[in-house]
Amino acid sequence: MISLIQYDRLRTVILRQGIVTMPHIHPEANLRKDLGYKAGDLRELARLIEDEFHLKLTAEQIKEISTIRSIVGLLNQVQLVSTPVEGLH
């Protein structure tokens, strides 16, 4: 599960774009409908998330991004997959 620190990092990334302000960022906020994101904004957000969380998102994963909650779910999924299992090399 994504930690509060990671959620704060995600909010910081979203705020850094300058499209929305803090009061508009909540789990159910739809990036396109509620926050006014366009396709290019979503691509930029995906790039910023990749940089901030040191991961690589596929085109399919980026298409799944619709709400703040969906980003959190995606981060959980990607980080779970990329987390090494103790004792395996």
Structural class: mainly alpha
Strand fraction:
under 5%
The overall number of domains is 1
The value of Rg in angstroms is: 13 Å
The string of secondary-structure elements, in order, is: HHHH
Measured distance between first and last alpha carbons? 24 Å
* Largest sheet, strands/sense/barrel: none
- Percent range of helical residues: 55-70%
Say what the CATH topology is.
Non-ribosomal Peptide Synthetase Peptidyl Carrier Protein, Chain A
**Shape annotation:** globular
Low-confidence stretches: 84-89
Domain Carrier: 23-75
InterPro entries: ACP-like_sf, PP-bd_ACP
Organism: Spirosoma soli
Protein name: Phosphopantetheine-binding protein
Q: How is the topology of this model organized?
A:
Layout: H1 4-17, H2 39-53, H3 59-63, H4 68-82
Helix pairs in contact: 1-2
Outline the structure in words.
With 89 residues, the protein is an all-alpha fold. It has a single domain, classed as ACP-like (Non-ribosomal Peptide Synthetase Peptidyl Carrier Protein, Chain A), CATH 1.10.1200.10. The chain is built from four helices and no strands. The chain has helices at 4-17, 39-53, 59-63, 68-82. Helix 1 (4-17) crosses helix 2 (39-53). The two termini are 24 Å apart.
